[in-house]
């Protein structure tokens, strides 16, 4: 048998081996299909996805994307693997033609990857030049793409909106600011946009004033005239403010239009119920009642941004009205120091609102440095909370935490050099004693005579 096999021609042996290999391959494929049909059907597309992944990774590297971010970006957006690399390259070229900036290209692609669809982006290639705006920002272009892609809008919709805004007299910078802050304006019809401008001009604003208001507070384009703006101005009138005062305050800070109906009433009600020193209340109302109420609203929003409820924010400001005299930047600086450095919770402000009313550089920082040093050196047995840090008077804090430890005097700052004297300087009590005069012999004789006369 072995002799017979060896005597076969070589091509027959090769045919038998090829037949056996094909049979094994078919059996393996049929076995995979019988156990997992999807695995057999998707083996070829999976290889094409791998090829696209490699091609797209190299393409993004050539266009300046960070290699460390490309892999995570493609993994989270696997729909891009279905696009042809040549089409993706054309899309990237179109984006760079709109604004030749690597920062713009990265922000647009990372925020809205679906715009790399060449069929979608090809329609926008010449539309931005047709809008006639030379100073389009990256965020404005990105917002237009995101809204158009999300709501299936075309370039003509964005062009119609921009031409409407320009036709109403808005400057290019105002149009760009609106598209940055409120890109949904693309979906609004011309009548709704015109109604806002007509309403503001009927109140007494000039056309240039309206342009300035919208430019500084572009989100006001989202407010409906009948549901928001008219009830808000009616509230101002009910509170007794004239149109001249309201116009001045709106021009001074257009964000006044962002107040909710009834919010200014609540703020003024809180201010009138304050129980504080007259000097503090006079300083609060020195800028006028309207502005004082608006300042309360701004600080309430600041506190709510850090997690306090509306009620807690009003409680903090009512208990510590001195916080209304500090700028919002200073309040944010104090709260950031409280949360990040001191590691306290923001709700500690409800228990110790005085923290927002004291001087940050002169009182908060020196006291915290002293307590932090004593805690790190193990000299404090009990933990000092925010109340124990802020409530004690300057003299009491010095006697408790600074005077027993000489090395803390430098941490406490300029107060340690003066040894934190009491409120009255030493020896002041002597000034309240009656003045003493030297007694002569004549005075003694006179006193003796008076005593004898009084006895008789």
UniProtKB/TrEMBL annotation:
Keywords: Transcription, Transcription regulation, Transcription termination, Transit peptide. It comes from the Eukaryota. Belongs to the mTERF family. InterPro entries: MTERF, MTERF_sf. The gene is LOC113740071. It comes from Coffea arabica (Arabian coffee). This is Transcription termination factor MTERF15, mitochondrial isoform X6. One of its GO terms (biological process) is DNA-templated transcription termination. The keyword Transcription applies. One of its GO terms (molecular function) is nucleic acid binding.
